[in-house]
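Quick one: sequence plus nicotinamide-adenine-dinucleotide SMILES, need structure tokens.
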Amino acid sequence: MPKYRTAIIACGTIGRVHARGWQDVPGQPVAIGAIADTHSDARREFGDFFGVPEEHRYSDYREMLDRERPDFVDVCSWHRLHAEMTIAAASRKPKVILCQKPMAVDLAEADQMLTACERNGVKLFIAFQRPHHATWLKARELLRQGAIGKPIQVTLDDGGNILNTNSHNIRLALFLMDEPRVEWVMGAAERTTEVMERGIPCEDRCLGLAGCDNGATILIQGELLTHNHVGDRRIRIGQGARVIGTDGMMELWTGRPPDDRIRSDGEMAQPEGPSAKYNDEFGVVRYLNGTSQGWVDVEAPWHDCWAHQCQEAIDLVEGRPVEPISDARHGRAVQEVMMALFESARKRRRIDLPLKTKVNPLALMVERGELPVEWPGAYERRARLVRGEAMSWHDA
Ligand SMILES: NC(=O)c1ccc[n+]([C@@H]2O[C@H](COP(=O)([O-])OP(=O)(O)OC[C@H]3O[C@@H](n4cnc5c(N)ncnc54)[C@H](O)[C@@H]3O)[C@@H](O)[C@H]2O)c1
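Reply:
Sure thing.
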């Protein structure tokens, strides 16, 4: 009999990944107690698949929170609803809220989420799950032991817009370096079309450099690299990072089992492929230094990184000593770097942190016509995720 119940808000792709994360915790101490989604097909498919009885499926997430009083809440909606849902959940005082990345769409919302959780005594996690990969945990240990000396620069090069994919990598860079304080950010952003990602305007590409108080910099290259290889050598890392140290180099990236070994979504709609591609993912790490005589592969027994994240939430509730990797403070740090990059583009200067601007500077530039598009016509990058006739959940 599970000791705890979680309530999942928004039953799309990542809601399923959260559900599996709880189920993959050894001993399964947390049951999927209730779900909420505005779309009836999403509720039915998810509820049937994960065995959530009809009477615990809700169209209104506030009603669910009031009636179910869960121990944990998973906020799995698109970014624009993260703050609203987290603040509403916090007011019902669950033990821990796990909210998806990015934390919010701007810094004001991120701070409101922290305030709401603080005043209600609720712990907030921002679910950047990848640092929980077994090999990536080991990578941090090796860096702490000086396997490549002191970090000088962490380079990031994922495609996609910054709030979506490079947010993961900024989180990874800070995690690997043991959470240094970012002192300044300088950056540029390009938006030539009216592209939107999950309901908010986003950039086509961006470039940023963040200076940390440990003397290292983080180089952010968003959707910039045009070559994946030099000769037959893969140079683009994607989800991961390249850490250049005083005495060596480390590379981290991700892999997945072959399609037929990824767990199935059964009858659930899956416009972006099986959701368990996120649960069944693994991290890859290798490093070299002056004495390693070439690359050394880092090994560690695989676990579902999402389950590791859930376990930390359970440990916290049960009073075991834990410094949660996904603590919201770290999610806020990522939010601040991303917003500072956009602010630097807006102000055309280096931005010293703490960032004073609370709005999303990219959205502000778009609103004020300061980033005139060359090819007009708004479009939503993730429209394929939306059911029915709308092109965004926010218009559905
Ligand atoms: N950590 C990761 O690796 C990772 C991967 C994918 C997505 N994400 C994040 O997960 C979040 C969700 O993305 P997704 O791809 O799962 O989206 P999705 O489109 O698959 O699912 C969104 C769900 O929200 C529901 N919804 C919309 N409005 C609602 C409301 N008011 N109340 C309740 N439910 C509502 C929709 O019906 C839909 O089922 C995003 O913030 C994204 O950044 C993270």
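The pocket of nicotinamide-adenine-dinucleotide is lined by residues 9-14, 36-39, 42, 61, 76-79, 81, 100-101, 127, 129, 164, 198, 278, 385, 393 (CB under 6 Å). The chain has a mean pLDDT of 97.
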